[in-house]
Design goal:
The structure is a homodimer of 201-residue chains. Chain A has 201 residues and is an alpha/beta fold. In chain A, 40% of the residues lie in helices and 20% in strands. In chain A, helix 3 links the parallel strand 4 and strand 5. In chain A, helix 1 crosses helix 5. Strand 2 of chain A pairs antiparallel with strand 2 of chain B, so a sheet runs across the interface.
Chain lengths: 201, 201
């Protein structure tokens, strides 16, 4: 597995840490690679925002410091404003499209993908699973991990009584991502503009 | 707050990650400092062991990489064997004394403190709170954080119905640490040998 640095950010209560843990577990426990997950506590945590860094690698990770993530997943406007400038040039930006409005600042993201994760979660009757919808979408778009490893990691990370709900949330996000890639295969790859099934692409 | 690097390690199910989270939150949310918590997933996680790194600092932390922890808290023999060689010379080693037997390898720990955390947790009827007993003992011994910040972080990190139990576990560990320091004030500081209320000191 190629070294991949990921940052996931949003506000408290969106389940940012669980999403990061699922990705880390999928890579390591279910796919034989290595992963670290770093959570920072500081003034921003007091302000109600939450972020986590995940590093995936085929080799043991000595320095779990994310400088410029390859993939940035943001679920709030504040998280977008704060972390988008750090994205690696040519990296992948994934946004919760109903919660994040892209500003006009040019940035290095070659590819920007949007998903209405909160709405998809609400279709399952539980807004709280938007984080796992995001994980599914992330998985389909980035192709860094196998769907089955991610499913196993989801099941391993939530209480038994919530497994079915969370696995459905995962599939929703994954399917949305697959459909979006399908659409792009016909319309061409994104280049600095948001693409979504409802948007400009 | 002085930069302090801490590693907490044990086996899966002992609540290593929660212990690390409580310490990080106490420093940041309740004491105005900064903290990072890094969890590694890898082959050792598949083997059922668990470890987390916590860094506390008065300033934002740019590199959350623990090379040689100032404080090592171990709750299993395997964790001791693996991580004790990494302890900073002159650092503090804290062990669950019923689960860890010190070997004869000389190492740089100037001070080694033992606590029967599992037994103290069992006195509360719930072995599962040994991690919070360890946090209390850690707090009293190291004096890096204020008792009240740690109490608030414990309360903030467990479900409401488990707050009372966990706060009692915290006090048990804290009191045990205070008594141990009291005994040492009479008998002299430890120097490379285990000290405990039941042991050699």
């Amino acid at each position: 597995m190629q070294l991949t640095e990921i940052r996931i950010a949003g506000f408290g209560g969106q389940g940012v840490i669980l999403a990061a843990t699922v990705i880390g577990k999928a890579a390591s426990i279910f796919q034989g690679a290595y992963a670290t997950m770093t959570q920072s506590f500081g003034p921003e945590a007091r302000g109600g925002s939450s972020s986590a860094q995940v590093i995936l690698s085929g080799d043991p990770i000595l320095y779990p410091y994310v400088a410029q993530p390859d993939v940035l997943v943001v679920m709030s406007q504040e998280a977008y404003t704060r972390f988008a400038p750090q994205l690696k040039p040519g990296g992948t930006l994934i946004i919760e499209q109903d919660l994040v409005r892209l500003d006009n600042t040019p940035h290095g993201a070659a590819r920007i993908y949007g998903v209405p994760a909160t709405r998809l979660a609400e279709e399952l009757g539980r807004k709280m699973v938007l984080n796992v919808v995001m994980v599914g979408f992330f998985g389909a778009i980035t192709k860094v991990l196998e769907a089955e490893s991610l499913r196993q990691a989801v099941a391993d990370s939530v209480p038994p009584s919530f497994q079915k709900l969370n696995l459905s949330a995962f599939e929703k996000g994954w399917d949305y991502g697959v459909k979006l890639l399908d659409k792009l295969a016909h319309n061409g790859e994104p280049n600095g503009h948001l693409v979504s099934l409802e948007g400009e692409a």
